[in-house]
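Fold it.
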Amino acid sequence: MQIDTPNLFVEINNTNYIFIVGKYNENQKLEIVEKLITPSDGIYENKFTNIYEVSEIIKKNVEVIEKKLNFIFKDLILIIDNFDYSCVNISGFKKLNGSQVLKENISYILNSLKLAITENEKQKTILHIFNSKSILDGTRIENLPIGLFGDFYSHELTFFLIGNNDMKNIKQIFNKNNLNVKKVLIKNFIEGAQIINQNDNIETFFKIKINKDRSHIIFFDKASFRYEEYFNFGTSIIFKDIAKVCSINNETIERILSDKFYENKNSEDSNEFLEEKYFTKGSYRKIRKKLIIDIVNARIEEITSIILNKNINIESFKRNNTPIYIVIEDQFILDNFQENFKFYFSQDYNFDPHLINDPQIDSSIMSAAHLSVYGWKKEAIPVAQTKNSLITRIFKSLFG
C-alpha cells in the first residue's frame, strides 16, 4: 500500500461501468478522489457482445481520469456484478483412527478438492475459495484442529468460478489498454462482508436483492461466502399480473395502489368495487378491491417462495431465526409493500427479515479496497495470481 498514490477500481454491473480512484492517507484509509459512471454498452445478458466497444469505453474513461490526475495507471482492481459465475461447495475427509490431525492431512484434503474442481470444471476459472467448514468427529471446529486427536476429519471449501472465456475477455479488454487486472472481486462478496463488518455478532445470514426484472440471493455462513443464485424476475411481475387480470395500464395501477386502500382491515371495504376516480383515462372498469389485494399478495408470496421459502437449492442452509437482509430496488413497491415482503419472508423457519438500502458506491469501494489489501478471514485464497501454487496460497491463509 503506497500513501497518496492513485489506485484504480472499476466496477462492471448490469447497467454501468463505474471508474473510481482512491488514495490511501497516512492512516491507511482510502479517500475517493475521482469517480466516473457510464452506461454498460457492449454487454448484454451477462456477456460481452462487442469487445472493441467495451475496450474503447475503458480507454476513453481511464484517459479522462489520467489526464485530470496527471497519473498513468498500470493496474486496477475489478469488481464484477453481471457475469454468469457459479459456486460449488465440496467436502473432503481423512480417516484418522485416533491419531493427531496433521498439516499433511489437511494438505491431502485440499489437494483432492482442488483436483476435483479442476477436472470437473475445465471450462471455468477460480475467482474465490472460502474455508466453509471444518469438522472433527462430528463437532464443527472454528480453527484448524492441528494437533488434536480424532477418528474422522472433514474439511469443506466453497469455490466461486467464472467461465474461462469471460475471464479471457475481461483480461483482453484491460490488457489492450495497458492495464493489468490485479484482483477480481465479486460484488456480492463485498456487500456480504460489509454487512458482517457493520453488524456485531452477525456472521450467518441471507441477503436478498429484488430488482424490477432480476433478483438474487446470497448466503454467508459464519463469515464464509457459501452460496448465490440469480432469478430472471422481479417486482415488475406485480404490475404485469394486475394489468393482465384487470386489463388496466400501469398508470392506473399506480394510482390505485398509491391510495393504500388495502391497509384497511375491514373485509367489507376490501370487497367493494374500485371508485371511478382511479380511471382518468379510458373507460371505467368494475373491479373489486379484494381482487387487487389478492393479486399483489399472490405475486409477493410467489417471489418470496421461489427465492427463499421453497428454494430447494438452499434447504441445507435454512435455520431458525436466521437474519435476512432485503433490498427492494423499486421505491414505489418498497414504500407500499415492504411489510408484505417481510411477512412472507418470515413465514418459514421464523426468519428475521430486515429491509436495508443498497450500499453507496463509495462505501462499496472502501470495502473492496480493504478486502484487496487485507483479505478476508474465511477466504482461503487471495484473488491476485502469484507464483505460488494454489495449495501453498491456501496454507498461507490457513496458517498465517
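The first helix runs from residue 51 to 69.
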